[in-house]
Model the fold of this input.
Amino acid sequence: MTEQEGTSVQKHSQSSEREAGIRSSVAAGLPVAIADLSDLVRIPSVSWDGFDASAVAQSAEAVAALFEATGVFDAVSVKRANTETGEAGQPAVLATRTARNGKPTVLLYAHHDVQPPGNDADWNSPPFEPTVRGDRLYGRGAADDKAGVVSHVAAVRALAESYGDDLELGLVVFIEGEEEFGSRSFADFLEQNREALAADVIVVADSDNWNIDTPALTISLRGNVTLKLTVSTLSHASHSGMFGGAAPDAMLATIRLLSTLHTTDGSVAVEGLTSSGEAVPESSDADFIVDAGLLPGVTPIGTGPLLGRLWAKPAITVTGIDAPSVQNASNTLQPQVSVKISARIAPGQDARVAFEALKTHLYANAPFGAHLEISDVDTGQAFLVDTSGWAVAEAKQAMADAWGVDPVETGVGGSIPFIADLVRVFPEAQILVTGVEDPDTRAHSPNESLHLGVFKRAILTEALLLSRLAEKRLTDF
Ligand SMILES: [Zn+2]
Done:
């Protein structure tokens, strides 16, 4: 054996000893992690207007205390962004530990705010009372995204137990408080804390896994465009018997206009909205039909592989309509109708370009000379991960080792628009979108839940990833 081989064997056994320690720390720490998560779920941190903002503040303090207690960070604080409107953002948690010896710095992102619970009667156990049934923990935020928050806490704890004062890895924790309300002050927060947030790798723990046995790294996200469209045809309402058949009512104009957005098979028919053409894994139509709850005889819309429709093509949905209710319907020609249009944009297309294409289509197809007004426009950029970086390779290896199964690279049909802000402010950073969810999580819906086996494997993945990055200098890559 040469001296060099001797060193590398020794190093190898040191690192496998280290990893065995990490594995046992994560396993031993799981009950504490579940208890911490349960405490967070009890705080109804809904970030929407009209909900008690003090709960979001309380949740931020609780999250800060968890990171403080790891003993790993030089500084932990609860911070709000100052916005242009003068309104402060919801409270975020920021914690930092400076890298030493040329080691990389990793930013861990999650959010501690949650969606409103909806109707309590739709829940099998109260939304803010964490409840274990079978392998799953139920509650609003149990998965999205308080499990993301606690997976960071638990991974950092395992790292601290393994390294003690020898930890040279740089760490930044950013736990947002208004992701579910559109991340309104996110860009301001980035600008105002740019130095503290700077990192080589950013782990966004707010996505999905392929299933409870197979991990996924999310590599593409659709963007979105939402807008309010108001269609007007008459200066006042009229009797439908006196004028119907000759005067065009706004409802007819709206129906005919909206029908031009799709072809007869349900594909998007707006010129200028593009598809990304990315390759997708095979999936079962039958699973999709069950997951989406299609009624007997109802067929999926669109063409091509199902996952391609969800990840790589645009979609347009009318999500709301302001018109008289059925109960209040009189025999009247409506002068004006408003609808909310929500479009998903394929990766690779700029959301503002997509908005212009949609707007052009609507004006070009307005029937009977109807007047259109477009307002309340909101856009979020799509995202494609550059999978050639070292961080992606390390993350996939850590997933394979923690789960015992190779990860799937997935797209997500939904949007995480703030990722585009991260890329803009930190163009050099490599972004890893990981998650604790699985296809049965029902994030945003009643009976949201976390699979506890997935939770454990997600914590172990992150702990292994961090410990491996802690062994490398940036010059090693
Ligand atoms: Zn989320």
User: Anything to note?
Assistant: Residues 111, 144-145, 179, 206 surround zinc ion (CB under 6 Å).
